[in-house]
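Write out this protein's structure.
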Amino acid sequence: MTKRAKIAEIFDSIQGEGPYIGYRQLFIRFCGCNLLCDYCDTEFDKGEEYTPLELLEKVKTFNLKHIHSISLTGGEPLLQYEFLKEFLPLLKETETKIYLETNGTLPNPLKHIIDYTDIISMDFKLNSSGKIGDMYAKHNEFLEISKNSRKEVFAKLVFDETIQDFEINESTKLAQKYDIELILQPKMNGNKISVSHDKIVEVFNKFTDKYPKTRLIGQVHKFWDVR
């Protein structure tokens, strides 16, 4: 039976997070997530169902020559990995890079589709900012699969005033273990940063003292007021 996926929206815009800020991407936003982070501002329920071929035809209505990559975002795309197993081989026919945005907590689904990805942008989820519990074991398993597959991988980390030193320690240990770039993102309230300047500097210094491959890059699409 052909799989179907619920897609919230498909749009051409600018990447606003991480090392690819400013690149033009085609975003495919999948509905649904296995987490419920405090700072999430995404609606998961509204969407339209597609078969793999239908979604491919929709993607082809955009001018892919002008974009850097196709971002699979959400929600959490890996919740629909059975659909992605059918869709991504078709999407590869467009010869466009596949950029997976994921919360990094679903290692087993990742195994099924990682060969079709080019760039993996994962989140380090902190309980202090997201109120979702300890995710380090899942992140470790996820990163092991990612790095063993020789994919380009980096991690983003949203923090607020309540970040704990043990969270900094655990996050930098994982980043160092897998030699990935770590991107710090101060928590936002709408298009405003909700973390004080002094706290941002303090947190950045603590991270870089432990792991120099750490960068501080805000969510600039929110400043620009674009999706």
